[in-house]
Amino acid sequence: MSIIINEDLRAYIDPLTKDEYLALEQSILADGCRDPLILWGEILVDGHNRYGICQKHQIPFNTIQNTKFKSMDDVHLWMIDNHLGRRSVSDFQRGVLALRKKEILSARQADAHAQTPVDSASPDVPSSMMQEDSQWNRELVARAARVSSATLGKIEKIQKTAAPALVDAVKSGMISISAAAEVASLPSDKQVAAVTGGQKELRQAAREVRQARLPPKPEIVPLPDNATPEQIELHRLTRLVAELTEERDHLKKKVQHLTIALKEARGEQAA
Question: Which of 175, 181, 223, 260 is deepest in the core (most CB within 10 A)?
Answer without folding.
Answer: 175
